[in-house]
């Protein structure tokens, strides 16, 4: 029985590696760049080797053979990557790789192997990919490929939290008004006002944020273009130093930098990505698209506690609103486990209790205000 904790740990590690390999292969299948797709395949191959390492540990401990299939979380993330692009899940994968590198360094079976360093390398690669919108310059890809042979603004998080903001804020508003005036159209009017006001505020804030970032990026690229024209040698030296900081030798870095600087358009694109961390084609994304997505996500969440009041009134509507809101909050908490890897029940119940707790407080305050005004 003393072996049980170790066997459980081996199985958890094995499942994590199987999930990671499955996700990397799924992303490689939808990646349009052949070079980048090959990077993902190499990452998948290494994770498969890591899975075999933990299978060997189980076999050495005389544990029964197990068939390890990808979990629902891995399959959902793969589904999202296929439909929304690799960058939608890169930050989640990066965090998982970072956690694996730290965990493996603390485990006696893997501490003195290549596993911690390889997982840490994966996290660095994914950080670069996520920072540059899912793509890398050719030289950076070449560097990562060589290193890996020897050897993570998350869109998903934003989507989940946007819907959560709408649901919790409008549920609290509706329950507060219901506490003060449980009958009549006041609740519907307040709920619609809360939905529109919150969604418009979120959309405007997102538009201002993205548009300001775009304007800043445009200014930085303009300055970079002027520097390439006025001081090309200095820019080449800076680019070489960047490549050296990523692990290339000084001669290799000089060769790559010289090749890049031969064409001004390529030089500007590369320096914007490598030095400034900006994708010149995207400039942080479309402000209109970001505002629209923010509006829709908030409105979707805010509609959940409101729609029962469009069908019923009084206590029936209040109970129905609380019920569907609790289910919605549980679903949002479950969706968060795609990022955290925690238990669905733990995250779902926690989110539901927090949201319902906020609604209860506003409902009590509403009743006190309603009683005071009536009295």
Summary tags:
375 residues; mainly alpha; 3 domains
Q: What does this protein look like?
A:
The protein has helices at residues 4-30, 34-60, 72-84, 87-105, 115-131, 138-150, 155-180, 186-230, 232-245, 250-260, 264-274, 287-306, 308-311, 314-340, 344-374. It is mainly alpha-helical and 375 residues long. The chain has three domains: 4-150; 155-208 and 286-374, no CATH class; 210-274, no CATH class.
What is the H/E order?
A: HHHHHHHHHHHHHHH
Oligomeric category: single chain
Q: Radius of gyration in whole Å, from Cα?
A: 26 Å
Strand content: under 5%
How many beta-strand runs?
0
N-to-C CA distance: 67 Å
Helix content: over 70%
Chain-averaged pLDDT? 80
**SSE-based structural type:** mainly alpha
The number of helices is: 15
User: What's the main sheet like?
Assistant: none
Number of domains: 3
Overall shape: it is: flat
Flag low-confidence runs.
134-154
